[in-house]
Design a protein that fits this description.
This protein has 183 residues and is mostly helical. Among the domains are: 56 residues; 62 residues. The protein contains 5 helices and no strands. Helix 4 runs antiparallel to helix 5. The N and C termini lie far apart (102 Å).
């Protein structure tokens, strides 16, 4: 474990030294380039010797030419953008508004459909609950009838209330409110 940590630390120090050495060399090179113009006032012999030792530097026109070309390209792009109209043409704007109106209409229809679907679902749940209650009442009535046929005493009250509750449950399902209305 400690050998691996030591190896990592040594590699890290090596990278740091390598980077610092490169930076120092660049810094010294930059200082040498700055001192060359200061010494430019010396004799021609010294300048000719220094030109032979250092490679020829490109002139400023060669350095600035790519930047100038890019700047020209950007100016042309901006000019083209400025030529384009800032507003949307009326025909296209009308098409956009019509599309928005259609979208709003579809959203409204979807909301209405959603409400109707929720109402139908809740009504279906109510009907299924009513059906379950009717099944339970039907089972109780059959059990009472079977008990009656066997000769066991029947509770008339149970039959009466069962038939009334059955009638009450059937009314909302059929929608016939006229059954209870006086004639």
């Amino acid at each position: 474990m400690s050998a691996a940590v030591t190896d990592v630390i040594l590699r890290l120090l090596t990278y740091i030294c390598f980077i610092l050495g490169g930076l120092i060399r660049k810094f010294l090179k930059m200082e040498n380039m700055e001192t060359v113009p200061e010494n430019h006032g010396r004799t021609q012999v010294a300048t000719s010797n220094s030109q032979e030792k250092t490679p020829a530097r490109p002139n400023t026109k060669e350095l600035l030419d790519p930047c100038y070309q890019k700047l020209q390209h950007l100016e042309n792009s901006v000019t083209e953008l400025l030529k384009k109209p800032a507003k949307i043409p009326p025909e296209k704007e009308e098409i956009i508004f019509e599309s928005l109106n259609r979208i709003k209409s579809i959203e409204y229809d979807l909301q209405k459909t959603k409400k109707a679907l929720l109402a139908t679902t809740s009504r279906q749940e109510e009907l299924s609950e009513s059906l379950e209650i009717l099944k339970e009442i039907n089972v109780k009535v059959r059990a009472t009838v079977v008990n009656y046929l066997r000769g066991e005493p029947i509770v008339l009250k149970f039959l009466f209330f069962s038939s009334i509750s059955l009638l009450y449950l059937l009314l909302p399902m059929t929608g016939d409110q006229e059954l209870l209305a006086p004639k």
